[in-house]
Amino acid sequence: MSEVRIDKWMWATRIFKTRTIASEACKKNRVLVGGVNVKPSRIIKTGDVVSVRKPPVTYSFRVLDVTEKRMGAKQVPLYLENITPPEEYEILEMNKISGFVNRAKGLGRPTKKDRRELDGFTDVETDMPDGPELSFDWDEYWDEDTDDE
Predict the structure, then answer these.
(1) Which helix (DSSP H) or strand (DSSP E) does residue 53 occupy?
(2) What is the spatial distance between Cα 83 and Cα 98, in angstroms, rounded to a whole number?
(3) Could you say which DSSP state residue 74 is in?
(4) Could you tell me which residues are beta bridge partners of residue 7?
């Protein structure tokens, strides 16, 4: 087998989780072969360069061999070579860093207790503690000699 459909190859080499998603990516012009948008039925051969845009990154792969059968992750390097430039991975890292940093990964939504603690931290006390009341007299601080005109 020296030729195969691009949607089958991308599914088989685990670029996409399902063949349907691979086909949709081709239909949405997110897959390029040799710099040209392709349809899911496009036949690819050994040596082709496939670019896949998964926002915000565009991954590039060189086809080393073709296959229609899905394989284990350990066998994928036999069928493709990742030639994605390092700048693309830097973009991915910047997006991870710029996200919501304050919560540890895997903790999910805040619990009710967390929410109450956050509310207690962010709410401003409206009641003044017992003591002398503070008042501000504008007339005392207003200088009638200066005008902003």
Answers:
(1) strand 49-54
(2) 26
(3) G
(4) none
